[in-house]
Amino acid sequence: MRKRNFTAQSWLGLDKTKTDEELLASSSEQDNTPYLASFHLKKKQCNSADERSRFPLQNLDLEWLSENLLSKVGYLYSQALNLFSSEVLESLLKNHALLSKLKNDLYEEFLGFCHDEAITLLVNDSYDFVAHIKNLKESEYQKEIKCFLQQYSTKVASFYLMKLRLVRILSLQDGEELRDLELLSLNNLFLKHFKKNTTSEFKSSFLQTNIYSWYSPQAKFIQEISSFFESSGSLSFQEIQFVLSRKISFFTLKSNALSHKNFGLFLNSVLINFIDWLEDRSHSKTRDELSILSTKFMGDSIIDLGNAFWLAQHSNSYFKWNVLLCPTFQTAKKQKNCFFRLCNEIEFYTFLVKISSFYSKSTKKFLSKCAQDYYVNTKETFQGQPSFSFTQEENKENSSYNRLVLSLLNLPSSNSWHFVTKKIKENLNTLKDSGYLVLLTTQNLFVPSQKNQLEKLLKKIEIRCSFDLQEIKGKGEIPAYIYVIKKNCSKLLNIKERSVCYNFKFNGELDSINKFNEFTDELNFFWEKYFTEIPPFVHRSFNDKQLQFFQNVIVDGKLIESGDEKSRITHPSFMKNMMKNCVPFHSFFHLASIKEFSQNKYTDQMNFEQEANVFLEKSSDELVLLLNFSQSESRGIEIIHKDLLLSKIDNYGTTDCYYYRLIPKTNNLNLNLFREYFESSIGKQLAEVSAMGSYNQAKSRVLNLYIPKIFNEEFNIKAELYSVFSFMEQSEDEISACGSSSLLEKYNSAEKFFEICKESKEVHSLLSYLSYFKISLSNILKKTELLEKDLGKIDYSLMIFRERLLSFQMAKIYPNNSEVFIEFLGSSLEVINAPLASVNLSFKDEKGIVTLSSTEGEVLKIHSDKYLASFMKFLFVGMKDMKISDLLKSMKVPSNQAIQGLVTNFFKTKEHYQDLYSRVDSEINQTLRHLISL
Question: N or C: at which end does the chain have fewer Cβ atoms within 10 angstroms?
C-alpha cells in the first residue's frame, strides 16, 4: 500500500468538494480543468485582458485545417513565404559563391530528396551537382533539380519566418519595441539578448549555423517584413504546417485521429501523469522547481503525432507547470529529419515564451535556463552558436532521453512481432536508466507463441503498463496498443523475477474523434482517485463507454491468467459482474499482526486435516491467514487453525510467506467457503493479480481482494432441500459406511437440485453443504492413502468392515493354525502368563510380525501374512492388561485370504471417492464463478 499525503485535486485543477460525477463533468471543460497540470501546484489562469490581448488566438482550437480555413495572418504568412522563397531561389541561382559554400551540405540534402522521392540520377558528387545548378537550363535533370530547389527555398524562407515569429512573441511578452532593420538579421538579434559564454547563453540547435540559416532578406523587403512581423504573434503552428504542406508534401497530415488534440492530450497524460502516478513523485519537487523531461518522438506518422503534441501543449499553456516535455522529432525519412526537427524546436521555444510569465525568472532567462537544462539532460555536446560549417545534423551519439515515443504503426506483413521487439531493443541505448519508452503499435506483445522470445526480451526491459484501445470503435488510425516500457537495469538477470503489468482496457464507440477526450478525462480521474492505493480491479462506465483496470503478473515471459477468453477474470463482462456481486475481503475480516499470539509455543501434535465445520464457531485467536510468496509462478492464500502455524512456518519460512491474525467481523461466517474460494480457480486468479508487492502492499491488497458478497448470508435451507442434501453433513465414518455406490446415488439425486439453488437464495447453503462434503471426502482419501502405506493403522471396527467380519469363518491362533507361526522369546514359561503391555507390528517383504510384550520385555512374535498380521495387531491392541496366554488360547481370526479381500475392496473405493471428490470440486468452482459472473 502506498501511503501518500497527496490529493490530486490540484493536479487536475478540481474542486475537492465536488462529487465524482461533478468532477468528471468539469474535467471536460478546458478552462476549468487542465489535462497536464502539476501534481501539487495550483493552476494559474491567464485571465488578464493584457495577457489575452497578446495572444488573441490562444483559445482557438485549430485541430484540422482545410483550404478554406486560413485566417488572415495565415494568408499573410503564405504570401510572405512565396515572396521570400522566390528570393532564396534567385540567390541560389545567381550567387555562385554562396552556392559553392553550400555545395557539400546541399548535395547531401539533394541525395535525401532523391532517396525519399525514389529518384535515380547520375550525379557523381557535390561539384557535379553544383555544375548542374549553375547550368540548370541545359541540365538533363532540370525538372528534378528545380523541384528540389523550390522545396529547399521554401524551407529556408520558412525557417527565417518562424524565427521572426518567435522574436515577435518574445517582444510582446517583454513589451519590447524593435526597429525594423533589426529584423533583417535575426541571429545577431538573438546574440544581443543571449550573449555567448554567459549564464544567459541560449544553447539551441536552431541558432547554430545550418543549411537553412544563411538567408537574410534584403532591405527592400522591410515593409513586407514589418507587416508580417506585426501580425505573426497570433500565427499558429498548425497554420504554418498547413501552408507548408501545399509546398512540401511531407508536412501533410495523414490522420485526423493521430493528429488530433485529444489524442495528444491522452499521450501527454501517459508521458507525465501516469508515470508520476506509477513512481509516486508527489513530494519530489519544490514549489518553484521545473523538471525537464527530454522526449524523443520517432517512427511512423511523426508529423501527425507532432501536430497532436503541440495542440495538447498549447491547450495547457495557461497555468504553471512543474514538468516540461522537451521534444525532439525524428521522422522515418532522411530528408525530413533536420528541417522538421528545427521547426519543432523553434515552436518549443515559442511555447516556452508563452508560459514564461508563470515563473519567477524573466522571459529571456527562463528560455536560457530551459535550453541549458535540456542539453545537460540529454548530455549533448555543443560547439557554440557561431559555426563555420553548414552541419545538418548534430552529434546525437551520446544523447539520452527521459522519454522515448516509438510509433510502429506500419508493420511488415510477416514477422511483425520480431520487427517490433527488434526496434525496442535498438532504441534502448538512447533511453536513460530511469527513463520510459512509450510504444504505439498495432502488435500485441503478449503473443503465446512468442513466450520464449518475450522471456529473453524481458531480461532487458520491464513492461510496466498496457493501454488496450482495440475495442474502441471509431478511433481511426489510433493504434490498438500503447505500452509503457522501462529499461531493466538489474544485474541479476538470471534470476526468474515476477513483474507486474498494469492494464487499462477501454471499450466504447466514438461518433467523433472529439469524444476521445472522455477517455483521457476518465484516466486522469482514475489516477487522482487511486493515487494513494492501487486497487486490484476497477470497472467504470461513462457515457456508454467503459474503462477496466486490472493487474497482470508476468512470469518467464507469459501472463499469468486463464487462457479461456470468456472465463478470464479480465474479460469485460466478467469484470463488470464481479465488481457488482463482490465486496472486499475487509468486509468480512480484520487482519492483525501475528506477534500478539505467536509467542505461544504449541507443543501438541500438529493435525494436518482440515476440520469440516458448516459454521465458523472459532474464537478470533484461533484463525491465521497465510499469504505465500514462495512460488514465483503463483501467490497462495490459506486460512488455517493456529495449531498448524508452527508447521506452516517450518514449511514455508518467514521470508516469502506472511502470516496474519484473522479476526471475523461477524459470528455467522462459514470458514469453509473462504477456504474453498481461495483454492478455486477463480480465487487463485484473483489472488494472483491482487496479492503482490511488498509486505505492506500485500496486506492492503489482501484486504481489498474481491469476495462474493453472498458469503455474508446466513445458513438457511428449505426442508425439502435439507432432506436431499443432509447426507453431505454426515460424519466421515457414516459416509464410509454408506458405501461408494449408495453415496454416488445420493449425490446424483441431489445434483438435480443444484441449478435450482443457484437461481435462489439457497446458493449459500448449497456451497456450505458442498464444502463440508468435499472436506469429508478429502479426509477420507487422505486416511485411505495413509492406510495403504501402513496397514497397521487400519481400524477394523469401522462399519465398512464390521458387517463383513462377522460373516467370516474364524479359527483359533493357537495351537493349530497353519497361517500363523508363534515364536516364543521368553526365558521361562512363566512370562507367557504376564499381562499384555504393548503390541508392535513390523513388515518384512510380504510377511507381518506381531510382537507382544509385557512390562518385563518381549514375550513372543506371531508370524503371518501381512493382512492377517494387521488384523491381529488391531485385536491385541484392544486387549491390553489381559494375560498373553489367555489371549493365545481364546483369540480367533479369519483367514489371511478373507482379510486381504476385505482390505483390497476397501482400497478400491478410493477411486470412487476420488471421482466424487473431483465432481464436488468442479461443482464448487462452477458455483463460485456463477456467483461472481451472473
Answer: C
